[in-house]
């Protein structure tokens, strides 16, 4: 930065963050001890109330927003979100830190209490420490240090904690974006502290298209299958077609997106489930029937160079081709969900700012990555029309959703330093 508008920076804020180590640990532990499991989506109000108490005491104006009517929202499990905003004395940009407050199920294999928040050496253990209550805590500490150090800043700092990212974000960021909380007029820079590692900037994610395919048959006695029509054999033909034509075509497509791990730089498809004929759970021996229906769910992840329409047409084209060649073949296809790919330009202000802050704080160049799966950036991009958004936060991505999940205190402190330095670059003018 050599232009006349170069922001003032100094190392004092980093000392201030170092002095908040105990506060950061206690905050992370408090958040982990509120078991915001999704499903079912519980204790969302409790975690929002906790954050409201903390942030309103520090001058933030807090708004609790329930995503009434969103998938999963009910009076028993209301989908609560919080947006906290602290306005500076002078006009300027708004920097928004968005974290999801929900965590996935515990699963087997834990040797620690998943909601105990135990501190052992440099690690805090618990479900959601890494994904992503540690990132939420780091962003709060960074924002608080910045506000104490620079009460005269320009613009606004926002912190949100939102519901249901783990189940698509429809009761969280998607709802807030629909209600106008994420528009380029209100918010100029978004940082999502997902666990990507403190030296990595995540520019976006691939897209996804989920569909159910059903093949049709005709029921008959199992001893005389020639009198019926086996839907599972038709599905076998579908799977053969995918093996022969779709999978090789997808493997040949490589994205320019810096997706990690590298295998996800190709188009991919998972066959999520297959069901046909009699239900697996039944009493006694199976009845002898030719199945008249077989269903699969496909999970097709696609690249920014592809379109969701193209992805859909490719699958339908193969099914239509099969229909023209295979006697009695009939199918139905139902879209279950779609997510567009999102990728922020490397030259976007939030990217260049955080990159500079990483160089300054960690003394190394950032690594740019994109995520194989999606996260809430999709809603900020598609619904909010806000393109200046990244994921940046502490933690090791591979620990997310695993037993004995943990977050490193040093990593949280380092990424909080990067976040605070980024705030200085964006909001001191
Ligand atoms: Zn997450």
From TrEMBL:
GO terms for molecular function: metal ion binding; succinyl-diaminopimelate desuccinylase activity. It catalyses: N-succinyl-(2S,6S)-2,6-diaminopimelate + H2O = (2S,6S)-2,6-diaminopimelate + succinate. Pathway: Amino-acid biosynthesis; L-lysine biosynthesis via DAP pathway; LL-2,6-diaminopimelate from (S)-tetrahydrodipicolinate (succinylase route): step 3/3. Its cofactor is Zn(2+); Co(2+). Pfam families: M20_dimer, Peptidase_M20. Its EC number is 3.5.1.18. Residues 204-323 form the Peptidase M20 dimerisation domain. Keywords: Amino-acid biosynthesis, Cobalt, Hydrolase, Metal-binding, Zinc. One of its GO terms (biological process) is lysine biosynthetic process via diaminopimelate. PROSITE patterns: ARGE_DAPE_CPG2_2. NCBIfam families: DapE-ArgE (TIGR01910), PRK13013.1 (NF009558). Belongs to the peptidase M20A family. This is Probable succinyl-diaminopimelate desuccinylase. The lineage of its organism: Bacteria, Pseudomonadati, Pseudomonadota, Alphaproteobacteria, Rhodobacterales.
């Amino acid at each position: 930065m050599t232009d006349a508008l170069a922001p003032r920076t100094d190392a004092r804020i980093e000392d201030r963050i170092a002095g908040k180590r105990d506060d950061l640990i206690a905050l992370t532990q408090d958040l982990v001890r509120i078991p915001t499991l999704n499903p079912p989506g519980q204790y969302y109000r409790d975690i929002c109330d906790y954050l409201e108490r903390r942030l309103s005491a520090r001058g933030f104006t807090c708004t609790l927003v329930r995503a009434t009517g969103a998938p999963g929202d009910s009076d028993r499990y209301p989908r609560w979100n919080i947006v906290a905003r602290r306005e500076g004395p002078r006009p300027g940009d708004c920097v928004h830190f968005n974290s999801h407050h929900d965590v996935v199920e515990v699963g087997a294999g834990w040797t620690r209490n998943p909601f105990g928040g135990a501190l052992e050496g440099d690690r805090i253990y618990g479900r959601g420490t890494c994904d992503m209550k540690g990132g939420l805590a780091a962003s709060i500490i960074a924002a608080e240090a910045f506000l104490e150090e620079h009460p005269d800043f320009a613009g606004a700092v926002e912190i949100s904690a939102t519901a249901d990212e783990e189940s698509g974000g429809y009761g969280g960021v998607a709802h807030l974006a629909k209600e106008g909380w994420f528009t380029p007029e209100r918010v100029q820079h978004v940082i999502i502290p997902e666990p990507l590692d403190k030296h990595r900037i995540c520019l976006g994610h691939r897209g996804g298209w989920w569909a159910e395919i059903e093949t049709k048959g005709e029921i008959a006695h199992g001893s005389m299958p020639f009198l019926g029509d086996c839907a599972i054999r038709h599905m076998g033909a579908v799977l053969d077609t995918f093996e022969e034509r779709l999978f090789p075509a997808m493997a040949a497509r490589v994205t320019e997106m810096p997706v990690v791990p590298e295998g996800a730089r190709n188009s991919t498809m998972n066959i999520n489930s297959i069901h046909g004929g009699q239900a697996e759970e039944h009493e006694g021996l199976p009845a002898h029937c030719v199945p008249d229906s077989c269903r699969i769910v496909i999970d097709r992840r696609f690249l920014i160079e592809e379109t969701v329409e193209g992805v859909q047409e490719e699958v339908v084209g193969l099914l239509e081709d099969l229909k023209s060649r295979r006697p009695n073949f009939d199918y139905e296809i139902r879209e279950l969900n779609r997510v567009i790919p999102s990728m922020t330009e490397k030259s976007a202000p939030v990217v260049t700012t955080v990159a500079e802050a990483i160089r300054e704080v960690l003394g190394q160049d950032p690594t740019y990555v994109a995520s194989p799966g999606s996260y809430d950036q999709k809603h900020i991009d598609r619904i909010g029309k806000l393109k200046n958004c990244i994921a940046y936060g502490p933690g090791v991505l591979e620990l997310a959703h695993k037993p004995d999940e943990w977050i490193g205190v040093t990593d949280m402190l380092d990424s909080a330093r990067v976040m605070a330095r980024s705030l200085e670059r964006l909001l001191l003018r």
